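Input (structure):
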């Protein structure tokens, strides 16, 4: 909540959230789908204490599912 208030005061817009999944794959859970906000989720799989995988997912407009997006290196 504090982060949301901080961003609002600066008129920043949230476009993604980064979460970690300890000892689970980098895929959204049913909980993520049920509570999704904002529409992009970047998920890091943490295996045995180290980052093992990083994937990006975009929520469909009808909130029915996430579709995986390609992560590319910016210039």
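Output (sequence):
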């Amino acid at each position: 909540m504090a982060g949301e208030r901080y961003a609002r005061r600066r008129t920043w817009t949230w476009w993604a959230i980064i979460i970690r999944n300890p000892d689970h794959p980098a895929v959204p859970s049913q909980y993520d789908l049920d509570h999704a906000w904002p529409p992009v989720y970047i998920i890091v799989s943490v295996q045995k204490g180290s980052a093992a995988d990083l994937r990006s997912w975009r929520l469909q407009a009808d909130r029915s599912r996430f579709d995986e997006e390609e992560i590319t290196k910016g210039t």
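Notes: The chain is about 15% helix and 40% strand. The CA atoms of residues 23 and 47 lie 5 Å apart.
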